[in-house]
Design goal:
Helix content of chain A: over 70%
Distance between the termini of chain A: 12 Å
Number of strands of chain B: 19
Number of helices of chain B: 19
Distance between the termini of chain B: 47 Å
Number of strands of chain A: 0
Shape of chain B: globular
Largest sheet of chain B: 7 strands, mixed
Number of helices of chain A: 14
Oligomer: heterodimer
Strand content of chain B: 15-25%
Radius of gyration of chain A: 24 Å
Chain lengths: 335, 530
């Protein structure tokens, strides 16, 4: 097990360095000078431009800039935003919990609703529920997020007044961030009504962000279930006189879950992409919007630092999963 | 089971009650973006100024809200020497810096604070010069390093600015956001504590509101400053609810989640006007959108050719299509809200037949040219590509074949400065300080050729007028000089002046006393809720 862990950790190192190179090069490949963008129509004189180039270290050869950047990264310094003049790490950790909280809620909703819906559709193949679910899933999958979000706001917030339009909590509640997760912090604050307010603010963004993964999971569960339901062992289970619930739930679903879990894992990437739009529409202070704004401003330090942080977190999660696989299945760690 | 159902029903009912009611005495402003920080001198964006300098700080001189007139601020009065080189400011006694849970001032604002405010921006030896990555763009952009010779403390309440050259807009410059006065006592305390960046993150000013807290990209909270030298604000609390999307801001305004929102979508303006709960206020913006010819390249070096092209342009169609009612035709290079605007100037009449005849008379045939379309949206040009296409069509009617080109924004700004640039450039400007010099000298002065003067136009009679105005301290004489400069500009036509935006500001009906700031800021002192 120890040698398996060491092997995995060793692959971690070149991947990490690769990510630093890609994130460093990516933003510099885009056309656009950050100093000129910062100055806008006002412009900047030649002398002042040269001063700023020097101040930001752009006068150094590109390899030197990379070495300096890597040196900073190894010491936990991802640089300072050109725009806000604040450390990238501070900004990242101020915003990351909001994105995680929203994404977690969305994936939970997608899984909790998507899997049963897929199972029921498969069991009732060709019937009304199946047809209706697959049509709805197709609509959900093709739904433009921006339009869908605005529609929900207009109906449920402005029209019916059931949910707030945007934000994470009513401004009436004010407390220190302890974890950055509003649901937890609102409970910890002890302020009456704060938790409920945080939940109400989560409803619409969660629905919007969960829509596409929910559609994908429901469709994937249905097709995996249909495949499994035709297997001999399912027929045998039925022939033995087991109840439909036991046949579908215990024998079929368990075996159908492998591709579904893979799809759920892949949905994390979809969630990050969806979070950018969802965060913008619902004024949700997460990293999606922060990264997009920074790309438009060519805020090199934020883009490369943000990408590195996101990639590192995904790498750590993958490493943990690999280690868990190896622990559960000895074949993998010997492979 | 029944009990559980009842509890669930109560919870659901609570969840589904009407959206957040706003607390009494709390004004909520749905701002369009996040402030970059709270030390205004470090930044250049209006969004940051709204959240910092407008709410938290004061300056020696101030713009009278709703106008571009300069009135006394932290300085009760000032004297200007005969030669225009010395400005002596008499500070208002008894002005308090904010008392918050993170700082309690021990003294009133004085000359040390004024000197520190500017020294940290201009003196590299000052320990705050490099704090928070200070590049002091506005201080440098307004030429303060070459303009200010020294700042002298005469006594605690008197401070003298000595200049290297006369500069008539000096007082207006000192009313700008970068000149917001910060507390030296607080800065020293933060330096001693090893947290100098708190000057930017936990601000202390003398303004109408004091800082309570900021949750990044979500909300900024302020409370009224009880010691504000003009009297406590009418609202007790001010909230900036950061809402980047204009459609969502509108929904929040409708739902009563905010009282004021900036920058509505032009497409929503008609619905806002019809909404009984919303008071839609409007005013011309302090900006101009223009098409700058390259006056160094033939045939655009001929004023008659430029004039003919201007006459070929159907500006009303541009206003209707591109601005959708949120703009008005520009005839001068400065907006009507600025003093010295010359309303007597006649705009070029839209007359394609005469334009064609003028081009023929100038010997211009089968002219081919480029029209540069900005890749970004601005209030003075919400859709440059569409505008360029309309102009292309108009020019086609007088036999001029135009090609629309565009570049990435940084490239666009850089390449459009080239003296041998091929084509006419769509661009614009939003004023900084309400002074005509900020438009005429920056955009059309000889110093700006190869830089901010995209027409590359250096015309001696015009330059003489704006130079004389810059050194003249008598407002009436300055006005006359700028009025004449506008006449010369119109005759020479280095630009086609296209539009000034119209700023719409939707407010909920309970908001009283809000004045649109012609300088583009959002100011909540003097605003109350009924």
């Amino acid at each position: 097990m120890l040698s398996f862990l060491l092997r995995r950790l060793l692959t971690f190192v070149p991947t990490f360095i690769g990510v630093t190179v890609v994130s460093f090069v990516f933003i510099r490949l885009l056309p656009g000078d950050p100093i000129l963008l910062l100055a806008g129509e006002r412009g900047v004189g030649e002398e002042r431009y040269a001063e700023l180039i020097k101040q930001f270290g752009f006068d150094q050869p590109i390899w030197r800039q990379y070495i300096d950047y890597l040196g900073g990264v190894l010491q936990g310094d991802l640089g300072t935003s050109f725009v806000t003049k604040k450390p990238v790490v501070t900004e990242f950790f101020a915003l990351f919990p909001a994105t995680v909280e929203l994404s977690l809620c969305a994936i939970i909703v997608a899984v909790v609703l998507g899997i049963p819906a897929g199972v029921i559709a498969a069991v009732n193949r060709g019937k009304f529920f199946d047809q209706a679910l697959m049509t709805t899933a197709l609509v959900g999958y093709s739904m433009p997020i921006f339009w869908w979000a605005l529609l929900l706001i207009i109906v449920f917030s402005s029209g019916l007044g059931w949910t707030p339009v945007s934000g994470r909590i009513s401004f009436m509640y004010f407390f220190d961030n302890v974890t950055g997760f509003m649901l937890i912090d609102s409970l910890l604050s002890g302020q009456k009504g704060a938790f409920l307010s945080a939940v109400r603010h989560l409803i619409l963004p969660t629905i919007v962000l969960a829509t596409i993964p929910l559609a994908i999971i429901a469709r994937q569960t249905r097709s995996a279930m249909l495949e499994v339901l035709g297997e001999d062992y399912v027929r045998t289970a039925r022939a033995k006189g087991l109840s439909p619930l036991r046949v579908n739930g215990q024998h079929a679903l368990r075996n159908a879950m492998i591709p579904v879990i893979t799809v759920i894992g892949l949905s994390v990437g979809t969630l990050m992409a969806g979070a950018i739009l969802t965060e913008t529409i619902f004024s949700w202070p997460g990293i999606g919007k922060w990264m997009v704004d920074s790309i438009f401003r060519r805020d090199y330090q934020v883009v490369q630092g943000g990408l590195l942080m996101i990639a590192s977190i995904i790498m750590i999660v993958n490493l943990t999963v690999d280690v868990l696989y190896g622990w559960i299945n000895p074949k993998i760690r010997k492979g | 089971m029944k009990k559980h159902f009842k509890l669930a029903s109560i919870a659901a009912a609570a969840m589904l009650t009407a959206s957040t009611a706003m607390a009494d005495g709390t004004l909520v402003y749905c701002s369009e973006g996040s402030p970059e920080g709270f030390d205004a001198a470090l930044y250049t964006s209006g969004t940051t100024f709204d959240a910092s300098s407008k709410a938290l700080y004061s300056r020696l001189a101030e713009f009278d809200t709703g106008t571009t007139n300069v009135i006394p601020g932290l300085a009760e009065s000032w004297d200007v020497s005969e030669d225009g080189l010395e400005y002596t400011f008499h500070l208002r006694p008894g002005v308090k810096f904010h008392t918050t849970d993170y700082f309690t001032p021990t003294r009133d604002m004085n000359a040390d604070d004024v000197i520190f405010t500017f020294e940290r921006q201009g003196d590299e030896a000052n320990p705050f010069n490099k704090v928070s990555g200070g590049t002091w763009e506005y201080y440098n952009g307004m030429s303060m390093p070459s303009l200010i010779k020294e700042i002298v403390k005469v006594d605690d309440l008197t401070v003298k600015f000595v200049l290297n050259r006369p500069e008539a807009p000096m007082i207006a410059n000192l009313a700008m956001d970068f000149a917001s006065i910060v507390s030296k006592e607080y800065a020293d305390a933060m330096l001693a504590a090893g947290t100098p960046e708190n000057l930017n993150q936990m601000p202390i000013g003398t303004g109408p509101f004091q800082f309570v807290g900021y949750q990044k990209d979500a909300v900024v909270r302020y409370s009224a400053n009880p010691d504000f030298f003009r009297g406590k604000a009418d609202v007790d609390n001010l909230i900036f609810a950061i809402t980047p999307d204009a459609a969502v801001r509108y929904q929040k305004l409708k739902a009563g989640e905010c009282h004021v929102m900036p920058y509505p979508n032009p497409a929503d303006v008609a619905a806002m006007r019809a909404d009984a709960d919303i008071n839609l206020t409007e005013q011309e913006g302090l900006n101009v959108g223009y098409l700058a010819y390259n006056s160094l390249v033939a045939p655009f070096d001929n004023p008659e050719v430029r004039k003919a092209l201007n006459m070929a342009m159907n500006k009303q169609a541009i206003i209707d299509v591109v601005f959708q009612g949120a703009g008005q035709i520009a005839k001068n290079p400065i907006p009507p809200t600025i003093w010295s605007y010359n309303d007597a100037v006649q705009d070029d009449v839209y007359d394609p037949v005469k334009a064609k005849a003028m081009l023929d008379a100038a010997g211009v045939k089968d002219l081919e040219m480029k029209i540069w379309a900005m890749p970004v949206q601005r209030p003075y040009n919400p859709n440059a590509r569409r505008m360029a296409e309309l102009i292309q069509e108009d020019f086609g009617k007088v036999g001029v074949k135009a090609e629309v080109v565009s570049y990435e924004w940084g490239e666009y700004l850089s390449r459009s400065k080239d003296k041998d640039r091929d084509g006419a450039v769509l661009l614009g400007w939003t004023g900084d300080n309400g002074d005509p010099d900020n438009f005429l000298a920056v955009l059309l002065g000889c110093d700006g050729v190869g830089g901010s003067n995209r027409a590359q136009w250096c015309y001696e009679p015009f330059q003489k007028l704006i130079d004389a105005a810059k050194q003249e301290s008598d407002p009436a004489k300055r006005t006359a000089l700028y009025e004449e400069a506008q006449v010369v500009f119109k005759e020479q036509a280095p630009w086609a002046t296209i539009a000034h935006s119209i700023v719409h500001m939707p407010l909920r009906n309970e908001v009283q006393g809000y004045k649109i700031d012609p300088l583009g800021g959002h100011i909540f002192y003097g605003v109350s809720l009924k």
